[in-house]
Amino acid sequence: MQLNLRPAQCEDRVKVYEMLAKSDATAEMMGPPDYCDHPVPGYDEFCGDYDEDAFAPEGDFRIYMMEVAGRQIGVIHYWLKGRIAEIDLWIADRSDWNQGYGSSAIGMIADVLRRETTAECMIIRPSGRNRRAVGAYKKAGFCDYDEGRHDLPAWCLTEGFDYEDAVVLVQDLR
User: What is the pTM for the complete model shown?
Assistant: First the structure.
């Protein structure tokens, strides 16, 4: 089945939260016992990060619903910071894993970034413990950050990590 991306709207916020914090996939990316360093946020905390501006139809923070046959299966979003786009994604139901949806969403968001922004590369910073996700991101074209190969601003390597063991993965958009 074909994946589609739809720009999220403010009325999607509860669904986005539930897919992140209340799905059968949540334990694979946050909360005890494996991710005590990244607890599952409450709805108010989530709304602090995903405020109404995050659901605006334009801007440096864009959220897209991942849909298959009209069914919402996950979320992909980016924050544009200068020439770098940091992305994140999650697929809410394990039955939708290993279907190629994550790779397709990454390719589609890369096309959006090339077409609509000045981003030169995108990064994603998952936990190194989440080997399944790291492997999927590499399959979708990301590679490990290499100081000799990648020219990233310092914030990419020092600020805003969700996990103590975050790995920086990079994909060129040029």
Answer: 0.95
